[in-house]
Amino acid sequence: MSTAPDGAAAVDAYIASFAPEVQAVLSAVRQAVRAAAPQAEERISYRMPALFQRGAVVYYGAFKQHLGLYPPVVATDAALLARAAPYAGPKGNLQFPYADPLPLDLIANVVRARLKANLAR
Questions:
Q1: Would you say 110 and 82 are in contact if contact means Cβ atoms under 8 Å apart?
Q2: What long-range pairs does 82-87 form, CB within 8 A, spacing at least 24?
Q3: Which of 96, 117, 118, 93 is nearest to 105 (CA)?
Q4: Which of 46-50, 51-55, 79-83, 106-110 has the lowest mean pLDDT?
Q5: Cα dihedral: 37, 79, 102, 60 (round 10)
Q6: How many angstroms separate the CA atoms of 55 and 77, rounded?
Q7: Considering the chain, what percentage of its residues have pLDDT values greater than 70?
Q8: What is the pLDDT of residue 73?
Q9: CATH topology (fold) of 7-120
Q10: Nearest Cα to 14, choosing from 30, 3, 2?
């Protein structure tokens, strides 16, 4: 019998390990990504929360000054790429500074696009 926590419990523990203001950001993102991909499996992967459905849909993680979202927007959606461009990070990720309002609708749209691409494979 495994003693490893299940996916949701592991994500709960990840979020709980941060300061309250970062916990609030992570919780809001978690709710948005779960709503955008309700059938996806939630787990910790690469030491951050992730959703999987027919492959990786999205990873998100807390960093010192921003929330990171991986992988980025599906390259075939030009409108979504344009909306995400201001948040493009140096390594192909999206970075959402804690000091700015969190664009939860954009994050949800990225997740929906990633899920659609996964399901089309």
A1: no
A2: 83/109, 84/110
A3: 96
A4: 79-83
A5: 50
A6: 19
A7: 93
A8: 66
A9: Aspartate Aminotransferase, domain 1 (3.90.1150)
A10: 30
Both tokens assigned to 94: 């999206």
The partner residues of 42 in beta bridges, in order of sequence, read: 51
Q: Which pair of structure tokens corresponds to residue 40?
A: 């996806």
Which runs of consecutive H residues, i.e. helices, occur in the chain? 7-16, 20-36, 78-84, 104-120
Which pLDDT tens digit goes with each residue over 23-49?
Answer: 999 999 999 999 999 999 999 999 999
Q: Which two tokens stand for residue 43?
A: 């787990």
- What is the spatial distance between Cα 79 and Cα 91, in angstroms, rounded to a whole number? 21
Mean pLDDT, rounded, for 100-114: 95
